[in-house]
Fold each of these.
Amino acid sequence: MFYIIGLGLSDEKDVTVRGLEAIKTCSRVYLEAYTSILMVQKDRLEAFYGKELILADRDTVETQSDEILHNADKEDVCLLVVGDPFGATTHTDIILRARALKIPTRVIHNASIMNAVGASGLQLYNFGQTVSLVFFTETWKPDSFYDRIKENVDLGLHTLVLLDIKVKEQSDENLARGRKIYEPPRYMSIPLAVSQLIEIESLRSTGTLDPEKTLAIGLSRVGGGDENQRIVAGSLKELLDHPKESYGEPLHSLIIVGKRLHHLEVDYAEEYAINRDTWRAIVKDVYGCTALD
C-alpha cells in the first residue's frame, strides 16, 4: 500500500490518529520537504512517529518517484506531506503514477492553510481562486496571478495568496556547471509579497490592488498557537510599512480582502487591524459595507 499522509500545519502532534497508525506500519517513510515546512525539525518527527524519515526533495518526488514507489505493491510505504495531501499538484501526480503501476493507494487528510485561513475571520465560502506568488528576479516577474486576483475582486471574493519558498535551489551558475551546490532556504515575507503586488499594480493600473484602498490580511505560522501564530490586517500600504518583525517567523500567507464583506468578517478581522479607524473607513467608504455598529 502507498499512503500519502497529511501532517497538518504546526508540529509532530498535528498528525491524525489514523495517519500515525499508518506511519507505524510502513517499512519506508518519506518526508516531502519542498512544497511546505513544519515548525519543528525532522528529529522531533522521528522521535514522535518512532520511524526514521527519508527526506524527499523536488527531484525525488517529481522525477524519481519510482524510488518512493519501489515495492509499494508488496509492503507499506508512505509519503508525509505538510498540510493536506491534495494541497499541491505534485502529490496528485504521484498518486496517478502509483495507480498506473497497480499499487493500492490511500490518502489520509489533515488541516492545511486552505481552510485554516478562517482564523482571519473571513468566511471560507467567500474565497475565490487561490494564487501563488513567486520570488521576482531582475529578468523574471511573472504576473498571471494578477488576472486571477482581478477575477476574484470583480466578484467580490477574497483571494488567498500562497507565498514562495525556495528550498534546495541552485544558482544559475551552479545549475549550468552541474554543481550540486544549493542556496540557503528562502521564505517570502508578507512585506516582500505586498511590494511585488504593488509593483505589478503600477504596471497594470486597473485599481485592483490600489495600495491605499485594498484591504489585506497577513498570516504566519497559522495553527502554531498564540506563541507562534501572527495575523495582521490593514491596507496594502499599511502592511508594507509595518515593521517586518511583527509578522513573525515563516511560513507567511496573504489574503486580499474581497468587497463582498459580511459585517461579522469586518468585526472579527478588525481585532488584527494595524489601525482600526483606517480599517473601518476603508470598509465603509471603499468596500461599501454599511452594516457596522
Amino acid sequence: MSRTISYITSSQLLAITPKHQRHRPNSIAIVDVRDEERSYDGHIAGSFHVASDGFVERIPSLIQMVKGRDTLVFHCALSQVRGPGCARRLLDYLTETKEEAGIKNLMVLESGFNGWEASGKPVCRCTDNPCKAELA
C-alpha cells in the first residue's frame, strides 16, 4: 500500500473526531511526540504520548498502542520538526518491514500543539498515557 503524509488543521481534526462523527468508530489516534513539555503544557485530550527522543525504538509499541486505528495524526509543539519527522520515521518503518498494521493515513497537525491551544481547542492536563479524556 502506498502511503503519504498529509497535513490537517486543528478544525479539521476536531470535525472528524468520533464525538462529531457519531456514526464513525474511533479510528483516529493523535500521537504527541513532544518530549518533557507535555507534562507541564498539557496535551490534546485522548492523545498518545511517544516522545521523539527514542521514537524509532518505540515504533513497535506505538503500533500496538494504536491497534484498530487507521489514521494517525502526529504533532509536536509547532509540527515543524519532531512531528513530521516521527511521521516520516513511522512511514519508513512500515515501508521497510512491509508491516500493514491497519494504518492507512498518516497526518501531521498544522501548527502543532501550540496552534491547537492558541485556537481555543480543548487541552487536557492529566498524566495518563494514553490520555483517557475525550476530545470535545
